[in-house]
Amino acid sequence: DEGESRESIVMFPFMAHGHLNPFMSLARRLGQRKGYAVTIVNTPLNIQKLKSSLPCKTNIHLAEIPFNGTEYGLPPKAENTDTLSYEFIGRLMEASEKLESPFKNLIINIAKKEGNFPLCIISDMFLAWTVKVANELGIFHSVFIAGAAYSMGIYFSLSLNTNQRGTEEEFALLDFPEAAKLHQSQLGTDLKYTDAIASLFRFRERQFLLCLRSDAILLNSIEELEQIGAKYFRRKTGGKPVWMVGPACSIAKEDESTQQGTLTKRLSSNFNDLSSWLDAHPPRSVLYVSFGSHNTILASQMKELAMGLEASGVAFIWVIRPPLGFNVTEEPKADEWLPDGFEERIKKSNQGILVRQWAPQAEILSHKSTGAFLSHCGWNSVLESLCHGVPIIGWPLAGEQFFNSQLLEKEVGVCLEIARGIKTAVVEQGHIAGTINLVIGKTVKGEQMRRSVREIQQKMEDAILERGDFKGSSVKAMDEFLLRAAIWTKKKHSVDSEQVSNG
Ligand code: UDP
């Protein structure tokens, strides 16, 4: 519908794989709605990366914001946190705050081109400074927090009140009493305040306070799962609208329609091999092991995990990358970091496959032979697992992953945690093998987890379903959000629109 006029929505995700992905997925859903067009803003290299994940036919546009990282002490071409060390991630975060005036110019240019200001700006929680631009231009602003309300509530609480963790082994959160007590072992290094990461804390505090000033909060979860977390954000924002619009994640059948999806299938012999390997296994019998897009564990833990996998006798696909302390982009050396002869043995016995660096995760999780996911509990991985009905064995490593694992185990019953943290994690092969068999095998616990995950899978599917008169909770939330944004932005610009309609 070329001539049809569309309301424009501007989205600005933070520059990290785990943020770009859910934004893209939400953008896809918004772009499928009649009468809307989405513009995703980012730095040039990230825009280039996003091009390949655009659906073939789309109302999603990409817009570059000029960025020169070397001005901020970043290495050349460093525009994404995925391959950056801690020190540089902090710099990239701070550099992102300097994009205010180019971002404002970009919005003004969009408005000039389209003859109208965008309906709303949806920004990342780390780019909440965009609320200032939105306010100046009279545009409705919302942050999209791409995590669970429960876990992000805890993450906000810990970031905004740095000294509440005290010294007790367990402690309750002052401003989030509904959440379960936390154990000190659930705080990764990024949530333990030290002088070395003081600037990271200050950055988060600045952005999170701005999040609470935004006009609304969108969360990547579903109403049916998240009463406690929603309450936290409603209270902290002083009663502003908080909408659950998830799940926004990679769903294999949706990904097929993107250029990247087609590409992965067509070009990657990797996926073809994996897919036929999976085909040859019984339903729900394979364990998939991955720690997300950038996390790694210790070499000693890799060895112990390898022995646990082997001892379990369960078939597995394991995405390996160099252990902590090594260059993450380096080719992982199985012979050096894994037990002697491990890869050969699992190949010969056909028990397992090692994938180096990157696997087509959504495809693997959607395969009928996949029966459990040993995961670091990053929220994208969690959603992908739940949407494909796969129970989780949790090994949270950082950030809010600990709270995701807790939510999934204690409230939802779809996860069993086997270890916690990186340097502090105690992993023991016998325990690993036992837990894998408990979850994937025909045990009471395993059956229970599969039942719970099927229920939650159904709820996730229903939440984004629109058929006949039926609208899922996330669809309704999105309707409300768009309506609120339209009324709000139009009111601010009523003078302009009168001028437009009077010709
Ligand atoms: N992912 C993938 N292949 C891999 C590792 C990760 O496709 O080998 C994708 C995964 O499907 C998910 C994202 O990368 O969408 C990881 O996000 P998550 O929130 O789970 O973890 P993070 O990487 O942010 O820690």
Give an account of the 3D structure:
The chain has helices at residues 17-31, 44-51, 86-96, 100-114, 130-137, 149-160, 198-213, 227-236, 252-255, 259-267, 269-279, 299-312, 334-337, 342-348, 361-366, 379-387, 401-412, 429-440, 444-463, 473-492, 494-501; strands at 7-12, 36-42, 60-64, 120-124, 140-145, 170-171, 182-183, 216-219, 242-244, 286-290, 315-320, 352-356, 370-375, 392-394, 415-417, 466-467, 470-471. Helices cover 46% and strands 14% of the residues. The protein is α/β, with parallel strands linked by helices. Residues 261-269 have low confidence and may be disordered. The chain contains 21 helices and 17 strands. The longest helix is centred in the last third of the chain and has 20 residues, at 444-463. The strands form four sheets. A seven-stranded parallel β-sheet has the order 3-2-1-4-5-8-9, with helices on both faces. A six-stranded parallel β-sheet has the order 12-11-10-13-14-15, with helices on both faces. A two-stranded antiparallel sheet has the order 6-7. Uridine-5'-diphosphate (UDP) binds next to helix 1, helix 15 and helix 16.
